[in-house]
Amino acid sequence: MTAISPRPGELARIADPATGISLDELALAARNHGMPLEALRYDITPIGLHYLLVHYDIPHVDPETWRLPITGAVERALELDLDELRSRPRVSHTVTMECAGNGRARLRPRPVSQPWLDEAVGTARWTGTPLAPLLREAGLSPDAVNVVFTAHDHGTERGIEQDYARALSVTDALADEVLLVYEMNGAPLPPQHGAPVRLIVPGWYGMAQVKWLREITVLPERFTGFQNETAYRLKSEPDERGEPVTRIRPKALVAPPGFPDFQTRRRVVDAGVVPLFGRAWSGTGTVTMVEVSTDGAQTWHEAELGTPAGPYAWLSWRHSWQADEPGDYQISARATDERGETQPVDQPWNRQGMANNMAQQVLVTVR
Ligand SMILES: Nc1nc2c(c(=O)[nH]1)N[C@H]1C(S)=C(S)[C@@H](COP(=O)(O)O)O[C@H]1N2
Ligand SMILES: [Mo]
Fold it and tell me: 81, 111, 202, 214: least surrounded by Cβ within 10 Å?
């Protein structure tokens, strides 16, 4: 068995097209679970059904002794404990979050990492306090460029030992909707989702939402840590610098119709009118259209849209499928957002398998 991260400078691996999922990938998939797609029925995903991604181990952080320093290129370094954070203005946002690697296992050839199929998504009600006023209180120095969020979890990745850390530009960090959160769906943050405090950056892929926050550092230069410089970049050649992964591309998912076969997950429905239902979201603007295909992406029908649960949350869609002929079908849905970006039917391939919003394919047998 080849290790995923053996040596410093190791390139992201691409699986040989002839090989299946490895035990290393299975070990990741067993730790990092997706949202069972039948949970698309909930506006707000119940905590245990929200997808989960943890690069290293879930750290144990004692909320009593937890402190958050805000340091670096600021006029007055601050340090807050949990009570101080809780006594600040309280804001909640309903946010659809998706892992940037969602859909990776469907890419050909397959980038080797957490092998997500379609379900690395969830919507939660996050409660905390806005970040911008805290940064303003600390007083950003005029030469501030990046704000780095460093976490308590520690590990190695492609041979580089690190604390999980991600930076945002000062502009992105000062956006009104960015929160330091201590509650998820009205309960204290659970250990797996970042207790006691995590960052929420609505509209961005999951990697920006740093869990188990330990320190916020303002830098007068660009942050060059692994999770910004090496990982989470769209590139097709290994030596390319690549474009950073940022906001969530438009995507729609179909809630599984009928009932499943245990091992293949193929769906079975009775002939007649089959109600199709799902959700759609985009981090770059409101979803303005969802189209459904029941013939393997040959023809598309506009679905009826519901109202989103908030400006950063998914909306529901529905479509009645007149399925009169018994047989095998492939169902797909694709979203378009207000910028006019539509999900592709073919894979947008890149070496790390990031931001892949290829339309889902659901196999259904009409009986
Ligand atoms: N400290 C820390 N924050 C992290 C991660 C991590 O491994 N460590 N994983 C990131 C990634 S890649 C994703 S997709 C989201 C997942 O958040 P969730 O597990 O609460 O759904 O957390 C992000 N924040
Ligand atoms: Mo992720």
Answer: 81
Task: Report d(CA 195, CA 202) in Å as an integer.
Answer: 18
Neighbours of 62 (CB within 10 A): 7
Q: Whose CA is nearest to atom 18 of ligand 1?
A: 52
Cis peptide before 109 (omega within 30 of 0): yes
Residue ranges of the chain assigned to CATH 3.90.420.10 = 23-231
Ranges for all domains in the chain classified under CATH 2.60.40.650: 251-366
> Residue 3 has what pLDDT?
47
Q: Whose CA is nearest to atom 19 of ligand 1?
A: 52
What per-residue confidence (pLDDT) applies to 1?
38
Taking only the tens place, the pLDDT of each residue in 144-194 is 999 999 999 999 999 999 999 999 999 999 999 999 999 999 999 999 999
CATH number belonging to domain 251-366: 2.60.40.650
Mutation test residue for ligand 1: of 156, 209, 233, the one with most atoms within 8 Å of CB:
209
The CATH class of 23-231 is alpha beta
Determine the atom of ligand 1 nearest the C-alpha atom of 53: 19
- pTM value is 0.97
Tokens of 311: 């400006």
CB distance 149 to ligand 1 below 6 Å: no
Cβ neighbours of 36 (radius 10 Å)? 12
Q: Could you tell which of 47, 54, 104 is best to mutate to test the pocket of ligand 1, judged by most ligand atoms within 8 Å of the CB?
A: 54
